[in-house]
Design brief:
One of its GO terms (biological process) is menaquinone biosynthetic process. This protein has helices spanning 4-16, 19-23, 33-36, 51-56, 105-120, 162-171, 187-194, 220-229, 231-240, 246-251, 264-276, 280-311, 315-325; strands at residues 66-68, 71-72, 75-76, 80-85, 89-94, 126-131, 136-138, 146-147, 150-152, 158-159, 176-180, 183-185, 197-201, 205-207, 243-245, 257-259. By secondary structure, the protein is an alpha/beta fold. The longest helix is centred in the C-terminal third of the chain and has 32 residues, at 280-311. The structure holds ligand LW2Y6JES. Ligand LW2Y6JES is lined by residues 99-100, 102, 135-136, 139-144, 160, 162-163, 183, 185-187, 190, 209-210, 213, 215, 217, 221.
Length: 339
């Protein structure tokens, strides 16, 4: 470590070093000069580099090195493609383009398996949810398998299991980004809202079709929408069932940004990589806190779970456990009572 003076000099030197000199030792991808020239538009500015950029390097715009994961929890995926990049990103793609990526119970079940895997994988820090092709993110429930009481698979049991998927995305302790090209309508638009962030291509179209096909979502599909766009707009979206282009969706607060279709994944990866640089615990607790403000007891439970997780990592928490196992009274006197 060295004395404080040496450490200060080292810190200053790190700030002053040109970015390239630090690339070899960094796990984070760094923007190359040639890439920088293509990143002019959109939200990442190319102005003079900040001290943060000098220390951390610019965020890479290179494509991700995706690894396909065809089998999850022992079962082969059919309706969904699941990929991971070693830099810490998982991508879940609804793969039914011939149906505009409408989901049937099997699709939803496969998505839940992938989200569960991404949650448990300590190397994954952010998850992308998207649809195959440029025509649709997801067109909602597959109306051709809708029966009485829900959507029906080979087991003939009618299900609305997309509601479980919504909760899973909401509670996933890692950011989930919807990457939307084409239609995000019906239950697909609700999935988009459940994600923490939505990045839309210029061709994206959003809206509710439920009332037109005899369906509605009176859960998150209504409550989350009203929180995002306000009462008047939410009523307009549901009562008229119109469709809205990407710019309109941005203006009303349904999504975070609009990018050219050909740059959709590139831009989404930049957002992922920026997120990956940040403290996973900070992100985890922030997501729980942002949920808690809306989710009542369930939200407090999620936030409270994070408090316990952190407490279990402290000396004070472990003193209680150790004392129990050693069959002695715990000594909590050594721990401060902060004001
Ligand atoms: C999405 C469209 C606007 C796209 O239009 P276009 O590009 O012209 O393509 P099409 O030619 O219409 O479609 C191509 C092909 O795909 C089939 N298809 C598309 N969407 C669906 C679908 N949702 N179900 C079944 N099949 C679909 C279409 O029939 C064509 O097939 P061909 O064989 O070639 O004819 C347009 O396609 C469209 O409007 N689609 C319907 C959108 C819709 O109404 N979705 C259902 C809304 S209701 C819902 O999602 C509820 C879901 C749910 O489970 C739920 C229930 C209760 C509470 C909550 C939820 C929830 O949150 O989801």
């Amino acid at each position: 470590m060295g004395d404080p003076q040496t450490r200060r000099v080292q810190t200053l030197a790190a700030h002053l070093n040109p970015v390239q000199e630090r690339q070899e030792n960094s796990r984070q991808p760094v923007l190359l000069a040639t890439e920088a020239s293509t990143s002019s538009s959109l939200q990442q500015s190319n102005t003079a580099s900040s001290s943060y950029e000098r220390v951390h390097g610019k965020v890479s715009r290179l494509p991700a090195a995706w690894r396909n994961i065809p089998v999850v929890h022992g079962e082969t995926l059919e309706d969904v493609r699941y990929e991971k990049a070693d830099e810490g990103i998982a991508k879940i793609t609804i793969n039914r383009p011939e149906k505009r990526n409408a989901f049937r119970p099997q699709t939803t079940e496969e998505m839940m398996r992938c989200f569960s895997d991404a949650r448990d994988d300590p190397n994954i820090g952010v998850v992308i949810l998207t649809g195959e092709g440029a025509k649709a993110f997801c067109s909602g429930g597959d109306q051709s398998v809708r029966g009485e009481g829900g959507y029906v698979g080979p087991d003939k049991i009618p299900r609305l299991n997309v509601l479980d998927l919504q909760v899973q995305i909401r509670r996933l302790p890692k950011p989930v980004i919807a990457m939307v090209a084409g239609y995000a309508v019906g239950g697909g638009q609700i999935l988009q809202m459940m994600c923490d962030i939505t990045i839309a291509a210029e061709n994206a179209i959003f809206g509710q079709t439920g009332p037109k096909v005899g369906s509605f979502d009176a859960g998150y599909g209504s409550t989350q929408m009203v929180r995002l766009v306000g009462q008047k707009k939410a009523r307009e979206i549901w009562f008229l069932a119109r469709l809205y282009n990407a710019q309109q969706a941005l203006d009303m607060g349904l999504i975070n940004t609009v990018v050219p279709l050909e740059r959709l994944e590139e831009e989404t990866l930049v957002w992922c990589r920026e997120i990956l640089r940040n403290s996973p615990t900070a992100l985890r607790v922030l997501k729980a806190a942002l949920n808690a403000a809306e989710d009542g007891q369930a939200g407090i439970q999620e936030l409270g779970g994070n408090a316990t997780l952190l407490f279990y990592q402290t000396e004070e928490g472990n003193e209680g456990r150790r004392a129990y196992l050693e069959k002695r009274p715990p000594d909590f006197t050594k721990f401060p009572r902060y004001p």
